[in-house]
Amino acid sequence: MIDGYKQQLGLMATERGIKLIKDTFEQELSRGLDLQRVSAPKFLEVGDGLQDDLAGTQEPVSFRVKHRPANIEIVHSLAKWKRMALSRYGFAPDTGLYTDMDAIRKDEDVSEIHSIYVDQWDWEKRITPEYRNLDYLKETVRSIYLAMKKTEQIVHEAFPIIEPRMPHQITFIHSAELEKRWPEHTPKEREELAAKEYGAFFLIGIGAKLASGKPHDLRAADYDDWITENSDGYQGLNGDIIVFDHTRGRAMELSSMGIRVSPESLKAQLREMGQEERLSWSFHRGVIDGSMPLSIGGGIGQSRLCMLLLHKMHIGEVQASIWPDSMIEEYAKIGVSFL
Known about the structure:
The protein is of the alpha+beta class. It contains 9 helices and 11 strands. The chain has a single domain (19-97, 124-296), classed as BirA Bifunctional Protein, domain 2. It is 33% helix and 19% strand. Strand 3 and strand 4 (72-74) form a beta hairpin. The protein starts with 10 loop residues before the first helix and ends in a 7-residue tail after the last helix. It catalyses: L-aspartate + NH4(+) + ATP = L-asparagine + AMP + diphosphate + H(+). Pathway: Amino-acid biosynthesis; L-asparagine biosynthesis; L-asparagine from L-aspartate (ammonia route): step 1/1.
């Protein structure tokens, strides 16, 4: 926590700012990537293979209903559901969908940027085989970053006290390059160092083992392609958009995204993770037999983007959630009011 923090917007102005950011960014994202809004589920049936297990790190909230035999789980993300929806809705190549994703991650360790309530824009775009490459991934990242920059400018015009801070361009760097540069640091420490240096960067290649024998971070085996060698000679067609948050003086991940697995990379990644039994699941069979279209997609944190662009110290200033009493008391000392 940084001493001397002063909220630039009061409660009512903050609520107007949240609405402005969400409306503006949705429009810019939809226009930039040619996406159409669709309705999405808040929960999924166990056993259909559509739930995101977050690399096995969290247990979903589950319940039973009278009219179905299987357990129902509140979504962790819509990574697999979106790919299925591309086929169901009949989206043409180079077009896609976006939706509001609301999740409960009950095992989350809460902090100023982590909440048990997760709200993000989930998006997915149909592609053809020739677009499964690093250049197309970078082009898509630039479009998303431009939507963020345009939104930041609109916020400044509405609230002149909120000065733009994001750099004009986003930098691209591979996780293997960060490890080579700062081998003595942990992956999260490398992200902090890179964020301070670049202001905004896209970290390519998260999930495959690096020279150290460990991945930069864990990624599920069945949505992003993190094993395919790209044109830079490294593994991975996925990554994270990370920025330097000047209010907190720390790095902030805004988006995780990537080109999705092909039949070949799905098999390789499941083998790498020792999860080949999943090949019998309906979603995975669809990837293998080609009924699931090739795609690129990701999630963009709604509250995190609002927090960043409104210069807020804590995510609880832009979303209503549950926090420890000790955290509420600590932040109240510097004038932070939680929603």
